[in-house]
Amino acid sequence: MLDYRVYTFLEVCKTMNYTKASQVLNITQPNVTQHIRWLEERYGKKLFSYEKRRLVLTSAGELLKKSAISMAYEERLLAEQMEKLSDSGGKMAFGITKSVNESAMKCRIIELIQTRMCGNVYFYVDNTARLIKKMMDQDIDFAIVEGNFDQGQFDHIVLSREPFIPVRGREYRLRRPVKSLEDLCGERLIIREEGSGTRNILESILLSRNLSYGNFESIMEIGDISAIKMLLMEGCGITFMYATAIEKELEDGKFVEIPLNNLDVCHDFSLVWPRNSAFRHMFEALAQNFTRCREGAGQEGLRQ
């Protein structure tokens, strides 16, 4: 069992405030201080310090935080596995990004939830940054993301590799003939919100060409993919999206891919979980199931 003082430490890491941590844990602030002091004496290192009156983690505190998150996560998963032995159904908590939610993989997610009807399911759709934070806070067990993440903190398995393409609505007229990414400069660009994996990947592409949002006529930041699709259909601008997220619209001719000679980008959709988990076999089996279902769906499509 993980020492209760470690849980106090993790709560202080979340709130970065001793008073708020004591309120969440329903203990006194002196108790919180005592718990942190005990850990500091145990490891012989200061875990927190103050910089301009703001509480911050020391390098030792950062190291303990990473280890403690992993240990707490393992303990919770172990308890849930024990519950399953008593046929209680157990619990599953996970998240997917908004782009994954718009892709063909969504059907596999629904199938996964249906197999867990006897247990509790907690399912979130959010951007990559928020889902990574949920895993750090142990709110979810795993996530399926298309954005970048720290491979030093998380293990992963690639489920698919998806084309990332520039698109316009059928009625949108480009301002000039387009052959390269640079030719799109001057267009109205629709982008996702901060923390979105799609946005991070687009920014990396632009940076690699010494471009920025400032090279475009104007920027619209939208945090909802359905709203972005509506704006595209209304001819309000262009955007960059995963082809799998707009597969139907491309087939129906509502959206048109903008072909570029110097842009051929694919990115991984990955199942991600905290690094060095003793339950790695569970996540590997889950990834195999997703891959199998996806291949089966692809073969079915070919037969049709």
Automatic annotation (TrEMBL):
It comes from Catenibacillus scindens. This is DNA-binding transcriptional LysR family regulator. One of its GO terms (molecular function) is transcription cis-regulatory region binding. Residues 1-58 form the HTH lysR-type domain. Belongs to the LysR transcriptional regulatory family. It comes from the Bacteria. Pfam families: HTH_1 (PF00126), LysR_substrate (PF03466). InterPro entries: LysR_HTH_N (IPR000847), LysR_subst-bd (IPR005119), WH-like_DNA-bd_sf (IPR036388), WH_DNA-bd_sf (IPR036390). Keywords: DNA-binding, Transcription, Transcription regulation.
